[in-house]
Design goal:
The protein has 117 residues and is mainly beta. The protein has one domain. The protein has one helix and six strands, in the order E-E-E-E-E-E-H. Strands 1-2-3-4-5-6 form a six-stranded antiparallel beta barrel. Strand 2 and strand 3 form a beta hairpin. The chain is globular, with a radius of gyration of 15 Å.
Length: 117
């Protein structure tokens, strides 16, 4: 899936279509984004966890941000390849190669452990 994004901070984030966003799951200075699937126009609210470069490619780690109404399980992380279009827009692409995805996850997890996570 190709996506593009508009970054927002929690101060400028408007309520999601399903209700008011609780600030309890995302710190005030975290970066939130609305990811738009360019194929079908569906919007996803995402919180950024990390970004890194590996083997000459850029990656971003995010989780699906949903209002905290007590009914949601812990979020699952998503690792996508980050690319910039010639127009300057940032695109995120699903990683279809299982080896590349595993390597990216291992790289992220090592960074996470080194940071004391």
């Amino acid at each position: 899936m190709k996506t593009r994004t508009t970054k927002r901070t929690t101060d400028s984030l408007r309520p999601a279509p399903r209700g008011v966003i609780s600030r309890s799951r995302v710190a005030k200075d975290d970066v939130l984004a609305v990811i738009v699937d360019v194929d079908n126009g569906h919007e996803y609210y995402m919180a950024f966890i990390d970004s890194f470069s590996m083997n000459g490619r850029d990656y971003v780690v995010m989780y699906n941000y949903e209002p905290d109404d007590g009914n949601h399980q812990d979020p699952e992380i998503v690792i996508m390849r980050a690319e910039h279009h010639v127009t300057g827009e940032q695109y995120f692409k699903s990683i279809k190669n299982k080896t590349e995805l595993a390597d990216a996850f291992d790289f992220f997890y090592r960074r996470f452990e080194e940071a004391g996570g």
